Amino acid sequence: MRLVFLDTETTGLSPQSGDRIIEIGCIELVDRRLTGRNLHLYINPQRPSHPDALRVHGLTEAFLSDKPLFEGVVGDLLEFVAGAEVVIHNASFDISFLDHELGRLKRPKFALGVDKITDSLTMARELFPGKANSLDALCKRLEVDNSNRSLHGALLDAGLLAEVYIRMTRGQKALVVEVDDQPALLEVVDTADLRQFVLPVVVACSEELRCHDALIAELKKASNAGAIWAKSVAH
After folding, report:
1. Mapping DSSP to helix (H, G, I), strand (E, B) and coil, where does residue 155 land?
2. Whole-angstrom distance, CA of residue 46 vs CA of residue 56
3. Exposed (0-12), middle (13-18) or buried (19+): which is 163, by Cβ within 10 Å?
4. Nearest in space to 29 (alpha carbons), one of 52, 53, 3
5. Looking at 12-114, which runs of residues are DSSP E strands?
6. What is the pLDDT of residues 147-202, one digit of tens each?
7. Where are the domains of the chain?
8. Are 165 and 171 in contact (CB under 8 A)?
9. pLDDT tens for each residue of 10-30
10. Residue positions annotated with a catalytic role
């Protein structure tokens, strides 16, 4: 499974009001492992950033003045994401800007060039209802180190999002990076004869059953799908 984690920085909040993309960061995972393939683009928006946006990303008009226009990098972007599941935090924001930029070039909408778009903000709201689910809040909750994030940066945020996504989907504690020539960690042992062991059966007492019911009730409240255990297990 190929995933691309994508983030953008922009001159402001509204592409309809003329705001433009100034930075794009993409990080690729295959089978939930970093491949080392990243895409990092700075883009000349041909306009200044709103002061509030500038305080967030720190990318000045002077810094961006010699960078390529969006039309000069769009091919690299579309080639990188082609056929992938693209994960974006608050996807509607980034997609609105990407579609606006593509529309200016009379190109198809972004979603038509990828396998699917997954909004990690929607995932987080389902997992942590009623809580703050910004990327910073999720990093803190899921113990992802974001100490280098003094300013927002598209590639940095895409990397943090990848860590957050892996932990939200509970596939592994952290991203797996393949390293060559590592010694084998598995040791071959003789097959044990388990017939000599008698496993005791411990029956839950009434207090333990009460605590179990309370836990199931909390799971029902926290999950839109309900608690599966409550449907399949009965005392």
Report:
1. helix
2. 19
3. buried
4. 3
5. 21-30, 33-42, 85-88
6. 877 778 999 999 999 999 999 998 444 455 444 444 433 344 455 555 665 667 77
7. 2-168, 194-232
8. no
9. 999 999 999 999 999 999 999
10. 152
